């Protein structure tokens, strides 16, 4: 049986802790705020993020990261990508030696332009084969109520990926393994930016043809950048690429799509941020990191560029649409 510490009790950390527990793993969930840990312990619910979901009786919760990490063979990192470095720096002295470190975050760090597995390796000082990532069409709320989905666990060490797969397989959650860490991470980070663009189109009142075009051309630019960074093209046709892109761009449950929709209806960035109630729309920061990464590798990412200009340079959404449609025509 896997002994797992899940660090981060937001929507996805709480849901994934439930998945692991339902799969038979021994799980301790760490919450930043003591009152959240206390509520999970005393009511079996996370009132902040999933108030109506009953968590498994065996799931433990604490706000003391040492207690969560004690004896763990697997450490799940479930905090937003821009705060992963600082959070992990506070936990690193207490990480059990040899434990697998699994990142759930979907983003690229601003300034360093590092993927989450790179941040984890650097801060924890562990080899690449000790770090894994999980990415796929995984809207937390649907999974929390037991709706079926699949995902990808990527690690350069196949045996570690298989151990993680066994630790979280349930009747409603089906993980596949992959050794293409770069591809899975780029798929997860990139789809949040493309979902912002889809949301903007929906907010402007545009229909299915437009969103299908954004999804398809969005996949093309994310894959182009991923391959330039060493990813395998076929990963982008899988769950961590197309799968997650379709789920996020189509679902009103997606925070990134919802954020984009508000911008498309004319809200300012600050207004959209306020409406998100502190929940993270990773694409808002990742668009800037991906754009810089693409420039460094001389890869064209026009949709990501447009999202960055709307979010951070004050460009109107209508101008972004005009610019994208005004680009020179070319073969597919
Ligand atoms: N929610 C989903 O459906 C989902 C699914 C798959 C992947 N993800 C990814 O998982 C990661 C975490 O997402 P989430 O949905 O759990 O986020 P969330 O906003 O619901 O929760 C974030 C958690 O991190 C904690 N945290 C610790 N330090 C923080 C800091 N400095 N700033 C903000 N929060 C901090 C918060 O207290 C909270 O427990 C993101 O990268 C997200 O893209 C989310
Ligand atoms: O709610 P979002 O937009 O952060 O997306 C959640 C998941 O990443 C979907 O797979």
TrEMBL record:
Residue ranges annotated for the Glycerol-3-phosphate dehydrogenase NAD-dependent N-terminal domain, each copy included: 4-159
Domain spans labelled Glycerol-3-phosphate dehydrogenase NAD-dependent C-terminal: 180-320
Catalysis performed (reactions): sn-glycerol 3-phosphate + NADP(+) = dihydroxyacetone phosphate + NADPH + H(+); sn-glycerol 3-phosphate + NAD(+) = dihydroxyacetone phosphate + NADH + H(+)
Keywords carried by this UniProt record: Cytoplasm, Lipid biosynthesis, Lipid metabolism, NAD, NADP, Nucleotide-binding, Oxidoreductase, Phospholipid biosynthesis, Phospholipid metabolism
EC number: 1.1.1.94
Binding site for NADPH: 11-12, 32-33, 49, 106, 140, 255, 280, 282
Pathway membership: Membrane lipid metabolism; glycerophospholipid metabolism
Main location: cytoplasm
UniProt-listed InterPro entries: 6-PGluconate_DH-like_C_sf, 6PGD_dom2, G3P_DH_NAD-dep, G3P_DH_NAD-dep_C, G3P_DH_NAD-dep_N, NAD(P)-bd_dom_sf
Enzyme class: oxidoreductase
Active site: 191
Binding site for sn-glycerol 3-phosphate: 106, 136, 191, 244, 254-256
Location(s), subcellular: Cytoplasm
Pfam families per the UniProt record, alphabetical: NAD_Gly3P_dh_C (PF07479), NAD_Gly3P_dh_N (PF01210)
Function: Catalyzes the reduction of the glycolytic intermediate dihydroxyacetone phosphate (DHAP) to sn-glycerol 3-phosphate (G3P), the key precursor for phospholipid synthesis.
Entry similarity comment: Belongs to the NAD-dependent glycerol-3-phosphate dehydrogenase family.
Protein name, per record: Glycerol-3-phosphate dehydrogenase [NAD(P)+]
């Amino acid at each position: 049986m896997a002994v797992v510490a899940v660090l981060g009790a937001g929507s996805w950390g709480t849901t994934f802790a439930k998945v692991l527990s339902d799969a038979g793993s021994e799980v301790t969930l760490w919450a930043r705020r003591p009152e959240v840990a206390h509520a999970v312990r005393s009511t079996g619910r996370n009132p902040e993020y999933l108030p109506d979901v009953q968590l498994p009786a065996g799931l433990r919760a604490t706000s003391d990261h040492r207690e969560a990490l004690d004896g763990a063979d697997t450490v799940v990192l479930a905090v937003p990508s821009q705060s992963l470095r600082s959070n992990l720096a506070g936990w690193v002295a207490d990480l059990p030696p040899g434990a697998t470190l699994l990142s759930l975050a979907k983003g690229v760090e601003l300034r360093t332009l590092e993927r989450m597995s790179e941040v984890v390796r650097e801060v924890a000082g562990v080899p690449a084969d000790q770090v894994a990532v999980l990415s796929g069409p995984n809207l937390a709320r649907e999974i929390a109520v037991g709706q079926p989905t699949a995902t990808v666990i990527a690690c350069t060490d196949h045996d570690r990926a298989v151990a993680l797969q066994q630790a979280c397989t349930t009747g409603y959650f089906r993980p596949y393994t992959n050794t293409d860490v770069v591809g899975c991470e780029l798929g997860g980070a990139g789809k949040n930016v493309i979902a912002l663009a889809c949301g903007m189109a929906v907010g402007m009142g545009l229909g299915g043809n437009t969103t299908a075009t954004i999804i398809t051309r969005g996949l093309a630019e994310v894959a182009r950048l991923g391959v330039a960074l060493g990813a395998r093209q076929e990963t982008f046709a899988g769950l961590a690429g197309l799968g997650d892109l379709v789920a996020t761009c189509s679902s009103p449950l997606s925070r990134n799509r919802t954020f984009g929709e508000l911008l498309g209806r004319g809200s300012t960035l600050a207004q959209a941020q306020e409406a998100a109630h502190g929940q993270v729309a990773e694409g808002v920061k990742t668009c800037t990191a991906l754009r810089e990464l693409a420039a460094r590798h001389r890869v064209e990412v026009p949709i990501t560029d447009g999202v960055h200009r709307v979010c951070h340079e004050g460009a109107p959404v209508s101008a972004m649409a005009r610019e994208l449609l005004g680009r020179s025509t070319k073969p597919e």
